Amino acid sequence: DTELPVLERICGIHLVAGNEYFPKEGDVIALCDKEPLLFQFSKEMDFDSLSSGLRFEPSRAGQLRKGKNNREFLWVPEENWSLEEQYRVVVSSEVQDLSGNSMAQQQEAYFTVDNEFLQVLSVSFGDGGTEISDFQSRGALQRALQDAVPVSVQSQDSCIVTKITFSKDFDPEGLVQALDAISMEVFFPLTASYPVLEKVRVSGESNLELWWSGFSPSSDEVDNYYRLNIAGGASGPQSAVGNYLKEDVCVIFQVLKS
């Protein structure tokens, strides 16, 4: 057998019960979360040869598995595909079939991930406080003081409850990530007292409530402003299926004495 093997198709798959799967339709490689890639060849291929001759740019950790037969192979990523990243997958011309015939030429394909970013749907301060859904990025803080949300406290020892609602549910590990990504800081003036996180409550898989104390209320002499930060990017909080915030979310608010 001297016929050279050909890579006939690279595509995403739909996973069903057990190890069953079927290819996604269409000419565009559509993937989301941790979905595997399917490689279909014209001939039965040598597994070790394919494993060493397959690469991704940028590099991704994953595992090659045999599919339904020796012509189909699944590549399963260890981590979720990165959003808005363009990937290049290359099958080297040195990959061989079971008869020892090499590929006629190197074959490659490009794809991006079909997924959406995590969003902060709303933030509110205090019981019955105003719900905010129009957030400022760190690059748009010049108008922060004039747009600051007023929040009232009785004294410096009083707590402000911050309620945050996300667009996706978190698993337990994701909730820990979300809490680590949330911070509260003095915005202006820097002489104001620094807030302290006192208590956290998880109210549903996409809602967090945080109690902060130690705010300096504004006075006749000075207006005190604070900033709530939620870190974005792939290193920030991730939902149960790997969605993350595209960028940091910031809310500036003025603390008033009630």
Secondary structure blueprint with pairings:
Layout (H helix, E strand, L loop, with lengths): L6 E9 L5 E3 L13 E5 L5 H6 L1 E4 L4 E5 L5 E6 L8 E6 L15 E6 L7 E6 L5 E2 L11 H4 L1 E5 L6 E7 L5 H10 E7 L7 E7 L4 E7 L11 E6 L18 E9 L1
Parallel strand pairs: 11-17
Antiparallel strand pairs: 1-2, 1-3, 3-6, 4-7, 5-6, 7-8, 9-10, 9-12, 12-15, 13-16, 14-15, 16-17
Care to describe what's here?
The structure is a single chain. The chain is mostly beta strands and 258 residues long. The chain contains 3 helices and 17 strands. The protein has a 5-stranded antiparallel β-sheet with strand order 2-1-3-6-5, with no helix packed on it. Strands 10-9-12-15-14 form a 5-stranded antiparallel β-sheet, with no helix packed on it.
Q: Which terms would index this structure?
A:
single chain, 258 residues, mainly beta, 5-stranded antiparallel β-sheet
Gross geometry? elongated
* Order of helical and strand elements: EEEHEEEEEEEHEEHEEEEE
The chain-level mean pLDDT equals 88
- Helical proportion? under 10%
Intertermini distance: 86 Å
Q: SS-based structural class?
A: mainly beta
How many H/I helical runs?
3
